[in-house]
Design goal:
Strand order of the largest sheet of chain A: 9-12-15-18-21-26-29-32-35-38
Shape of chain A: flat
Strand content of chain A: 25-35%
Helix content of chain A: 10-25%
Number of strands of chain A: 40
Structural class of chain A: alpha/beta
Oligomer: homotrimer
Largest interface: A-B, 63 and 63 residues
Amino acid sequence: MAKLQQLNDLVAGELRGNPDEEIHRVVSIDQAQTGDITFLSNPKYLPLLKNCQASAVILSPEVAAPEKNLIITANPYLAFAKILTFLQSSKTTGQGIMPGACVAESAAVDESATVYPGCVVGENVKIGAGTTLYPGVVIYDDVSIGRDCLLHAQAIVREGCRLGNRVILQPSAVIGSDGFGFAPDGSGYYKIPQVGIVVLEDDVEIGSCSCIDRAALGETRIRRGTKLDNLVQIGHNVEVGEDCIIVAQGGIAGSSKVGKHCTFGGQMAIAGHLTVGDNVMIGARGGATGNVESNQILSGLPLMPHKQWLRATMSFTKLPEMRKEMKQLQKRLEDLEALLQED
Amino acid sequence: MAKLQQLNDLVAGELRGNPDEEIHRVVSIDQAQTGDITFLSNPKYLPLLKNCQASAVILSPEVAAPEKNLIITANPYLAFAKILTFLQSSKTTGQGIMPGACVAESAAVDESATVYPGCVVGENVKIGAGTTLYPGVVIYDDVSIGRDCLLHAQAIVREGCRLGNRVILQPSAVIGSDGFGFAPDGSGYYKIPQVGIVVLEDDVEIGSCSCIDRAALGETRIRRGTKLDNLVQIGHNVEVGEDCIIVAQGGIAGSSKVGKHCTFGGQMAIAGHLTVGDNVMIGARGGATGNVESNQILSGLPLMPHKQWLRATMSFTKLPEMRKEMKQLQKRLEDLEALLQED
Amino acid sequence: MAKLQQLNDLVAGELRGNPDEEIHRVVSIDQAQTGDITFLSNPKYLPLLKNCQASAVILSPEVAAPEKNLIITANPYLAFAKILTFLQSSKTTGQGIMPGACVAESAAVDESATVYPGCVVGENVKIGAGTTLYPGVVIYDDVSIGRDCLLHAQAIVREGCRLGNRVILQPSAVIGSDGFGFAPDGSGYYKIPQVGIVVLEDDVEIGSCSCIDRAALGETRIRRGTKLDNLVQIGHNVEVGEDCIIVAQGGIAGSSKVGKHCTFGGQMAIAGHLTVGDNVMIGARGGATGNVESNQILSGLPLMPHKQWLRATMSFTKLPEMRKEMKQLQKRLEDLEALLQED
């Protein structure tokens, strides 16, 4: 529970109404009751505001303010997130290495960390303060993990990889699996040992069942603040810059370098050995087959400006009738040509 | 082992031949021997029937019946499935919590359930009668799981999620990972806490390494009887209706609602915040970028009627020659125009 | 450490320079220091050779040889791989069944195998000499695993499946999950029991979170030497021939048969019940919707010769202007027709 004044201070908003109003929960606008705070970020839900029972509402200054307790802020969605985080945070104290966990003697696990049953932690591993390993997490030898990380159930970090602070691995995320490298050897393939590592910098989040392959030599690196959704594939020796967003089921093939502040839609792909600049947006299912300059919004396979792609896909559905029209044009032209030849 | 009469009764078929024939196995038509029952559902395999050594065959009434022991039924594939299930079922009795499993004291595990070694079950979890947790399954706190569920190795159910009866999770299925929600915060991103849950209703099946994200607020829900193949992504706050089929590697982005009796092909995608009606079929690799009305068969990106898509893709392969023809038309037209101007 | 002569002998190259040069590491050309060996396989990196500090370089005969210690060989990349493997190999002796592993009494685990803590091995399992099961691996009953296999953390092999020798499973690979088979049963679906198995032949590698479904009846088979990248889906009863390469996030639907020496790019798909010949290359995101003859290089959905696809996709981006041009042609043609009618 918190008082409205306290929540307003947290997000540096403008409070209207009763600063002592007691807030217990954050819920969506259609479900809010007395004791709840809700928010309006999508104008589509504006009509719901009228009958909303919430004790307070987070609003942007542009919205005509109703007769309610309000927190006015330029970014209601961000304020909602911060207030929700505040009301959720339960300050669990570290529980240390719990019975049923298997931790090598040479591992250095901070006493404020938590290692749940079913975890296996290898030789010479370092685990920082406040970090939690949920059940079934496996950490291979020589891994280092920073402070306040959350590794969910069955997440795996293979040998030698390094995680910064506040890194989150969703369940079954795989960090440091072998890169896919084989040298043709007559009719078959010879496996290239993958002896590099993966580095996840501070504040990186990796989704469930996403796979970040270790480098062949050197490192695969995901830079500070970048977030990957579920089932994403990152090939060996890839670098992804700061504050990127990669939506579910996308893939980046080996050795490609991506700049910062990029946003990639679902099922997108980037071929290997490419360079993508900063502030690049690639739409869902887009596919980069060549280098990409900074500051573009692109879609399609091959990539093209998003607006051009929208027009091209609309034309695509018209292709059969275009072919028909073309045949008719040819026929009419032939008729004219024949007519003129007769002259 | 069963007698043919018993199997015929099970599927309410029409028996021809020896009701006392002993049946030991169900196998495919090309491998059947004495003691086996087989089935013919694809007419392509009709020629194999002649030399088939099976002790009995399941057939539809349309097929010219050979001189064999037969079960005649309108749906041989369904009858095959029921007979196979019957002959397989081994009525294992629950083994309880086995040594090497780690179950919180506050968890209520029915005595007829089975919890294999390597499982970790959290606080206040409820597990119903006849349910099996294979090795390495992790159940977070406050989860409820119904009767006769099968959770295969390494399946994960995160905090607060609810599974109905007869739910099947294939290995490494992830239920309740965080939805992918971040609020832009200057140059970076602020994580939106994902405090909702996932509900899987009765008879739902989730494939290996498929990920069902928990809701930001409220719930993500997969309704009764819906089956998901492997490596499928379901975003936060999605709802999928009853009796849907989602083939491997498909994805549904956050907050989209899908009706009942839908069938989605492999690698299909549905963008976020959309509504899809009932009885919608989307072909493999199709992509919904807008709302979809009920009772349609669609393909492509953007979606279009499947037949139109087939024609459009055929035209697509002809695009380069269309461009060439268009250039020729332009040239001929210019010639004509010049000729007429001369006049 | 090794002497250069020893490494040259290993790859049957031609040594130039000092055979006694001591080599400690294999690194990439931009990071090489004294004591390192590096290689040049991509001519793009030729300029780096001049200032390279490596103690030796692996080169192909076509490259103008610098004044350095050299191993000259027709395939520098393969030589690099072999030398790296040699310098890496650490000949760990088997550690047997470690404390914290749970192995059924009826399982036969070779004494030179290693089973890490957190593994669960079922009844009647056979595990061959030199095979390693990393933490959290789950082996169901009646599985057989050959010699010198590597099963990484959380890999799962379900009941009855068979792995040959030197098979590698990356973390969370799933072998033998249920095939996706349901018989329509009124409005819902009846699950077809999947009672077949998966066979992985010698030298197969399966990537992280890749899923190989067990057959409904019979077997799903991946033949000798075939390598699958991460997040790949293989449906029930699929057969993949020898020495194939399937890049990340590709999928092969049920009952399709693929020949040998095929190479499939990322996010590729093959529909069900198809036959694909030998030596077929399918580009990234390609989709097979019909049978494919041997010895082709194909791309697109539907598949077409790769060069045709490149031209078609280039034309695709021009579609909107093609439509505009077509309208102009129509207009000009109408004008001409009108003009001639006036005559």
